[in-house]
TrEMBL record:
Keyword Hydrolase: yes
Annotated InterPro entries: Nuclease_put_TT1808, Restrct_endonuc-II-like, Uma2
Pfam family, one: Uma2
Gene3D superfamilies given in the database record: tt1808, chain A (3.90.1570.10)
Entry's transmembrane regions: none
Domain of life of the source: Bacteria
The Putative restriction endonuclease domain, residue ranges: 16-156
Protein name per Swiss-Prot or TrEMBL: Uma2 family endonuclease
Amino acid sequence: MTLAPTLPDKDDWTVDDLAQLPPALRCELINGRLIILPSPTFVHQEICIGIYLALRQNCPRGLSPSLDLSLEVDHRNEPRPDVLVVDPARGRRSPLPIEDAALVAEVVSPSSTTRDQRDKVKLYARAGVRSYWLIHPHRDRLILTERTLVGDIYQITDETDDVFTTDVPWKVTIDLPALLDHCIDLVGPPEG
């Protein structure tokens, strides 16, 4: 039996501290807080893959969608968005510089709600990420909220639970009801 490593008891973590952790530990650093990321659910991953596949269509040369990569922001922040669009030229590097991110998307889970809707909104805006999507899985629908950077703050430019279409960072269409139906076809309807 392998025992989990004991993590130092710290209130303020830095990216230097992350280098001392086991490389297999899924974590992110937000405002000096170390967040150990739980293993995602099957439905969460299917939603991420659906978003990823929609982004692959019409993707211009020099950009590429990806899943679950760490982004280098500053000494106290290294987020790990669910889906992102980056310049693949530095694809052998981890973490990637946040300046390479044209879009970040988070699929909100019960444990990430505050972090995704408050902390990361401010963090990504401050870092200059042009587009931030939040996908909220609900019992009977998916809601996608698109935020576009205007100056140094995000403005909500769209929110829908239907077919989502945008031109930022390029022409993308996601049929949210079809994506939810796909998940339900795979795992069955939500319990309760």
